[in-house]
Amino acid sequence: MTISDSNFVVDPARYASLCTCGKPHPTPEVRLYSGEDACIVLAEDCRRIQQDGPVLVIDDENTHKAAGKDVVGALADASVSYKLLTLEGDIEMTDALADSAQDTAAGYSLILAVGAGAINDLGKYVATRLGIPYWAAPTAPSMNGYTSSIAAIKIRGVKRTLPATPPRRIYAVPRVVQESPLKLRQSGFCDVLAKSVSDTDWRTESTLFSGSYCELPSGIVAESEDRYLNSPEKIRNGDSAAVNGLFHGLLVSGIAMTLAGSSAPASGGEHLVSHVLDMREGLTGRTPELHGLQVGAGVILSAVCYRKLAALEPGAVSRGAETAVQSGLDGIDAIWGPYADEVRNRFQQKQPQLLQFNALLPGRWDELRALFSAVRSPNFFLDLIRRTGFPMTLASLRLTRSEFIQAALAARTIRERITVLDLAAHAQILEAAAEETAALLS
After folding, report:
1. Are residues 324 and 199 in the same domain?
2. Are residues 413 and 357 in the same domain?
3. pLDDT tens string for the chain (442 positions)?
4. How far does the chain reach from its first CA to its final CA, in angstroms?
5. Beta carbons within 10 angstroms of residue 48's beta carbon
6. Are residues 349 and 398 in the same domain?
7. How far apart are CA 160 and CA 153, in angstroms?
8. What total of structural domains would you count in the chain?
9. Are residues 122 and 269 both part of a single domain?
10. Which phi and psi angles does 21 have, rounded to 5°?
11. 28 in helix, strand or coil?
């Protein structure tokens, strides 16, 4: 048995029917095989397609136990030439790690990553740099990066997303996904939940500047939401249909980003909060919580910001651009130390847009408020997350109140993308929103 050439995560025929922008989109034809014999099918496909080409398998100590050992066993049985690179400890995706892995991968014809998060980003990014195919064997529904066309990587201490070609083929064992640690499932649920606020960030930026918004990415994600969004308790309990439904939703979310040509459909201001907490590790020594769980706190913050913004009249946003930009610049050196120049460069790239807020926002405010009012309440999101069994408190995130508020206020400066955090800073409600969110998470 081999993977079907028509076994797509999302049928490409859906792309044309859901598009509202009329512009060309990438066509991510990512093929998925999901079955208990996935490792065997993977090895057979590898032998058939790669023939004698050597394969580099990348996993870590945990994912090797979950699936890596079965993958390499199947490759050996199929007489596939491979090398196994098992990374030790908790992996952080950095430029130094990517350079090292690229040196190891030189001369191989395929990279196969067995794992999630950083393992997936590492394999995808290195394969893209080398111009060779990339396949994935996911082990947990913990994040939406499996099928995306980006990789999150820390460069000179600053978290960035860089282009990376999605895997051509994905092989998943439903039992492995279902039995993944609860915390990883909770993380994935929070990550995919971000779509509800990040989509509004994208709509807002598009309304003000780029005109880039399209219903297609949101539409394909919405088609899969019923498989996981209404049953967080089942994800907590390890229900097979719910957990694998979440996994499928995460795959679709990644494809949505590829279709958009950016992470905008699934990553907005809420993700920046998590990136700040990740980046601060090198300065404070504090070990971050799982990416998706931190994103969950960012979702609550974004929802609070949108609720406060929806209550404002146009006159409240007719001034404040210069003050908001300067306050962002003023805090960079104290917060970021050796990373300050890189962060400042990111923030300065969007300053011309931020300085247009005084003129642009009042005339579009009624239209924007309609978007903001449609965002679900902070308590709606908080309830969903807590129903997965994760407390979603500052204590459960191992954060103090001051650490969270600092991250909430600093997040807008680390990327050039316009998000709700920029609007909240302009309207001078960001600090109050951070305080309110901290109270909700207490």
Report:
1. yes
2. yes
3. 566 566 889 888 888 889 999 999 887 889 999 999 999 999 999 999 999 999 999 999 999 999 999 999 999 999 999 999 999 988 889 999 999 999 999 999 999 999 999 999 999 999 999 999 999 999 999 999 999 999 999 988 888 889 999 999 999 999 999 999 999 999 999 999 999 999 999 999 999 999 999 999 999 999 889 888 888 999 999 999 999 999 999 999 999 999 998 899 999 999 999 999 999 998 999 999 999 999 999 999 999 999 999 999 999 999 999 999 999 999 999 999 999 999 999 999 999 999 999 999 999 999 999 999 999 999 999 999 999 999 999 999 999 999 999 999 999 999 999 999 999 999 999 999 999 999 999 9
4. 52
5. 11
6. yes
7. 5
8. 2
9. no
10. -95, -20
11. coil
Same domain, 146 and 285: no
Structure tokens at 116: 């999630």
Residue 60, strand partner residues: 87
**Cα torsion angle, 340, 345, 351, 353, sign:** negative
d(CA 273, CA 197): 13
In terms of Cα–Cα distance, which of 75, 37, 69, 73 is closest to 174? 37
From the number of C-beta atoms within 10 Å of its C-beta (0-12, 13-18, 19+), residue 23 rates as exposed
Q: Which amino acid is at 293?
A: L
CATH of the domain at 68: 3.40.50.1970
What is the C-alpha to C-alpha distance for residues 414 and 402, in angstroms, rounded to an integer? 19
Q: Cα(39)–Cα(248) distance, rounded to whole angstroms? A: 18
State the CATH number of the domain containing residue 301: 1.20.1090
Residue 77: both structure tokens together: 């049985």
Radius of gyration of the chain (CA): 21
**What pairs with residue 115 in β-bridges?**
138
